[in-house]
Write a structure and sequence with these properties.
The chain is about 40% helix and about 15% strand. It is an alpha/beta fold. An eight-stranded mixed sheet has the order 3-4-2-5-1-6-7-8, with helices on both faces. Helix 3 packs across helix 4.
């Protein structure tokens, strides 16, 4: 089972919607963990089985309280189901609530890494010293979500440079780093160009391709009519991404085994 963190280097390029869409097409049981320190978006477009908004009585804050002091508890006890079959760890509603987690982040990361199932952690915007850094450090892969414009690529390069040491980027036992571009699927060449640009700057990240920017289709996907869009460009791009993310995360396990020999 894998813990895979999704982050942005700047702004809101579509991390949450990419994570939710990916979980929807993932071939195995998965959990979406909303860990964005400035407040999550999942409750705004997902509903519980009764059609009501997801509540905050069970989620990241309750998990943080349960693991405070180093206790290891089942993450499943703090997860909520959605109407379309997803399992969600609801995040904070506002940044001030993050303070209540305090030093619990290390234990939250350990609980997520030990979860019986694949975990997609939406960590929002990342920077050195970010509260969610312990989660990234326990991840089997970290995926940056970005647009293909010049400022986005520049910020990605800066973040990768700053995170080189804490994530051991490039080391044999380092965290595998990938990125996905949200935009027109025809931008695959742009994604490949970004990979080469990063390599020339001395930072490595694997291009995972392009996810179609199509919020309308994604909204339909999270309803009972989702099957009607399974052949859409968005869903095809998410299925392709799923395979590449799975492959990226598997390289971490292989490298860890090799170091242990």
């Amino acid at each position: 089972m894998s813990l895979i963190s999704f982050v942005s280097a700047k702004g809101s390029p579509g991390v949450t919607r990419t994570v939710a869409g990916l979980a929807r097409v993932w071939p195995r049981r998965s959990l979406v963990a909303d860990l964005d320190p400035i407040g999550g978006d999942l409750p705004y477009f997902l509903r519980d089985p009764d059609g009501e908004p997801l509540g905050d009585e069970r989620g990241l804050l309750s998990l943080g309280a349960a693991v405070r002091g180093g206790n290891r508890v089942p993450v499943a006890d703090h997860v909520q189901p959605t109407a379309d079959g997803l399992s969600v760890l609801v995040g904070v509603a506002r940044p001030s609530q993050v303070q209540a987690l305090g030093a619990s982040w290390q234990h939250v990361a350990g609980s997520l890494a030990g979860h019986d199932g694949d975990v997609f952690a939406d960590c929002g915007r990342i920077h050195p010293g970010a509260a969610t850094l312990p989660v990234l450090e326990r991840s089997d892969a970290v995926v940056f979500v970005l647009r293909s414009d010049v400022p986005s690529v520049a910020h990605l390069r800066e973040r990768l440079t700053a995170l080189r040491d804490p994530l051991r980027i490039g080391a044999i036992d380092g965290i595998p780093i990938g990125f996905v571009v949200v935009g027109d699927p025809k931008e695959q060449r742009a994604a490949d160009d970004i990979e080469r640009l990063l390599a020339s700057a001395g930072v490595s990240a694997t291009s995972l391709g392009v996810v179609a920017h199509d919020p309308r289709t994604l909204r339909i996907l999270h309803t009972e009519d989702g099957r009607a869009v399974r052949r859409s460009v968005l869903v095809r791009s998410l299925v392709d991404l799923a395979g590449r993310v799975e492959e990226l995360a598997s390289t971490r396990s292989a490298a860890t085994e090799a170091v242990g020999r």
